Amino acid sequence: MSTPADTGPDCAGSLRFAALLATYMQSANLPLPNAVLRHIQGSLSMSDDQAGWIFTAYLAASAITLPIAQWLAARYGLKRVYQISLAVFALGLLLATVATTPLEFVGARLLQGAASGVLAPLSMAIAMDTLPLQRRVKFGATWTAIVLFGIVSGPGIGGLIAEHFDWRTIFYSSIPLTAYIFLVITLLLERKKPGPAPGFDFFGFATFTLGLIGLQMLLDRGPRLDWFASREICIEALASALGLYLFGVHVLTSKVHFLSKALLRDRNFVLSSLMFFALGFVLLSTMALTSPMLDEILGYPPDTTGALTIPRGVGLVGAFLLMGRVPERFDRRLFVAGGVAWVIYANWLMLGYSPLMDAWPVAVAGAIQGAGLGILMPALSKTAFSTLDPALRVEGTGLFNLARVYGSTLGVAIVQWWFFNNTQAMHTALAGNLTAYREASRSLTSAPTQVLAGLNEMITGQAAFIGVIGQFKILLMVMLVVSPLVLFLRKPVATN
């Protein structure tokens, strides 16, 4: 039974607020555990390589459900799908609070991510329906700013809560918000009878998903299972190769498929999507590295670790909003180049991090990187769609956002893998150099166990810090590799 919607402005405003709150909540929950990884790992006996699953599980599940959200809404009804997604999200939150093993916690994050991939586009659809046509054109920037604000403020909120309460409280805090959104949607959103299900390329979607999820599992599990010495890794590699091969053949031989060929013929769209992939790679990976560095290696408390993400958030959201005021006559390619340069400079500053530094280098580098990303994101969006056929913009928007999501999930997996390997190699190298000091090394053989444990902990900390710096080099290289693409962009067509 449905509840008719009140068409008055109060109802529209309440629905829009609930939809934007859901948008913020699902984006903030992605990095929410970032500032309290040490506490989560200690409680669940989670290894360092498993800690990366906290983010990749959420991102990968979101990337799977994001492309089919609109189809689900058209097939089963927007209200019903949205309510189920909220219920699944709340279930994931509850399961995270009662998890006692890494597998249980990762399973809870998978549920949260799967619901998030549906909530994000449908929240935007609900909010857009509450606005008059003339205001919908510029609303996309507001929605994106809220998504970004959620991503950059999540660690700060998580750290502040965890400093005064148990880490599980960070998930409890989202349950009342979920209940409020569910209540508003139930009472105010009209239940429309689902129409005929639109066409959807399930084969293309399935093979594309199989290829990327196989690659994701390969990168996540490889370091722990000694790569291709493991049968599991061989199966995941085979699944990834098979999925991507079948998807490639499907794209080349089928007239209608998951990704329209027309999108791939627009040079600006393709190049901008590649750069947007790199942007996602850098944004979440930096956060996944910085917070553990501060929390686990340098020993900062969770509230300080979370607070040090604020400069990046202020720079990102502030630059993004300022870009919305730039007149159309200015060539957006200049801003793309400027944004890339700012991000490269910020990543270069991160190479100078030291175990002896205070908080200022982290705050400054974060603010500069945030400003660069805040300039780059809207400039890339404008460039990507300015030359694209308007009939392809809906499909293009989905693919463009998917590029950022997959950039983030693969980026986190790659940096975690490299960190795991690099830390082990540096630990071996540093420990091996102790033999050069022969008298000191002889004395260690008779040293108390506590002394040896302390020495090993110090070496591990040094190796881990060197490993983190190595990760920042990867992020710098990613931006350097895509930076020449700016030269091949066509001048965007000015639009009103």
TrEMBL record:
Record's GO cellular component terms: plasma membrane
Protein keywords: Cell membrane, Membrane, Transmembrane, Transmembrane helix, Transport
TM region positions: 53-74, 81-100, 106-127, 139-158, 170-189, 201-219, 239-258, 270-289, 309-327, 334-353, 359-380, 401-420, 464-489
Record flagged with keyword Transferase: no
Pfam family, one: MFS_1
Single GO MF annotation: transmembrane transporter activity
Membrane topology: Multi-pass membrane protein
Main location as per UniProt: membrane
Location of the Major facilitator superfamily (MFS) profile domain: 15-494
InterPro entries (UniProt xref): EmrB-like, MFS, MFS_dom, MFS_trans_sf
Gene3D superfamilies linked: MFS general substrate transporter like domains, Multidrug resistance protein D
Localization per Swiss-Prot or TrEMBL: Cell membrane
Keyword DNA-binding recorded: no
PROSITE patterns referenced in this protein's UniProt entry, alphabetically: MFS
NCBIfam families: efflux_EmrB
PANTHER family in alphabetical order: MAJOR FACILITATOR SUPERFAMILY, MULTIDRUG EXPORT PROTEIN EMRB-RELATED
Name of the protein described by the UniProt record: DHA2 family efflux MFS transporter permease subunit
High-level lineage: Bacteria, Pseudomonadati, Pseudomonadota, Gammaproteobacteria, Pseudomonadales
